[in-house]
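Lab meeting prep.
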Amino acid sequence: MPLPEIRLSHISMAAICGLLFSLSFRLNQYFDEQFIYAAGISLLFLPAGVKLLAVLVGRLPAILGLLIVSIYLGAGIWPDKPMSTIGYFALVGLLTYPIAAFGLMRVFGIHQDLRNLRYAHIVALSLAASVLNGIVHNLLYLTQGVTASDELWRKSAAMALGDFMGCFVVVALFHATMSLLRTLRRNLQRD
């Protein structure tokens, strides 16, 4: 089976998604004082929304860009952890999003180009990705001594809430922007 062709558009998508994820992560740090729950858990985590949106729009190239940046950012968050653990955190935290998103896209019959994406879909995609990520991430944290067993469900719920809020804000803004652009285009075509 031949390998897929690497295009400049794939490299650009990976770079743009990685850059947006990194910028959203840095922006989110300004909210840490108000929203930080515990190490690695914010009650408003905008990068989760950027991650979900990137996965929905950019597919595999976006996932690769997000993975590279997640490992880079993880090295700054967890300087005491080996790179293998940081890579594992990044990979597991990233893969929960496409698993949830593509699974629900199939269930709801959402087209690959997202043309039939509706507001209710955004809520469901955000919720599914957030809950799956919160649980899986904290199970991984449990194995690495970051989360204690008696804190597992509290921290999972807190992470899911923060991811949901971030997903909902970012993806809803994207959806509203795209709807506005479609309306403007239709109005310009009528004139």
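Slide two material, second protein:
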Amino acid sequence: MYKVLLLALLLCLTLASSTAAHGSFVYVTNYGDGTISQFRANSNGTLTPLNPPTVKAWPRCHSLAADPSGRFLYVLSSLEFSRRDCVVSQFRIGSDGGLEPLAPPTIPVSAMGSGPSLIAVNPTGPAVYTMGRGSETTTFRTESDGHLVPLTPIATANAGITGPNVYLTLHPTLPLLYYAYQGAAPGPREMTAGGVDVLTFRADGQILDKPVQKLNMDGNTPLGVVLARDGRCAYVPHNWNIVPKISQYQVLPTGALLPLAPANVSLPANVSQALADPQSRFLYVIGRRVNTPTAHSRISRYRIDYNGRLGKHLVQKLPLRADVSFAFFNSDGKFLYLLIGNGIRSFRVRANGSVSPLQDRSTRAGCDPLSMICVSR
């Protein structure tokens, strides 16, 4: 009898500890005060601040990324008196979602030209990439305990890219990454074309110098490459060109992009971000506010057909008081989080892909938030 009770007690404790160690959490970089806001994402999509609600990272926190296991978080920041010199703050994500600095808490990053752009984690290997606005790339190896170790640089794979903004997308299953870069302005009334470079990397994560493919875009401002969940199709939204559009591609086994038919679909103007839901049912395009007396933001959604082609888009107006600076889905795609001003708005995603706000007011983040991620573990 006592053995049965003891086994039952051990089972309850095991289940309790397992439950406590799992959950979804949202983290936000606050550029203005050098902190990371941390929240628990509740089962109904609302956000609850953790205790403490923020942790100190480094002045001018920029972007962040989590490893695929959801155990570690990395934050790219520029130093207080120099935008060229940057650091990566490295954290362990506790069972309750709280961030715990590793030792050492930061790793220096080589000078990044005009400032940091983004940080990304390789989903297929132990590597982390940081990028500057001048396309300077640093590769780190990730140890099993979460620590980053800088790798010896090799020839810069994207040398010569000088556009003001760059975007990095890693393939979910293949050793491939996609650099999308905007055009540069070499002189008055001049603009070079943007493009996408398809690159591969070694087993240790180092990017190889020879691109698999180089695509020149007739639009000057591609907003990155959005991959479907299985990595078989890719979408490149273009903004601020003569005819705003989304280019759609089949991803070949080599990683090269082959245009689908039609090669492009129409895109509303004034776009800030595009993303697919985790199930790749829809492609969402976040629009900027329309300057009218009843200003609103827009979400355009395109159904992704079985063959990867985009269907006709539907537009939904959102009564928001500021532009959306960042958007992110939770892991199962049931909720969409929008970073607006100094707060986060939570939306439920319905079966038809439309979204509806969960709350009338935003959940406040920190000062001047820039980037956001939802982590499940």
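Talking points for slide two:
Confidence is low (pLDDT under 50) at residues 1-21, 155-162.
The first strand starts at residue 24 and ends at 30.
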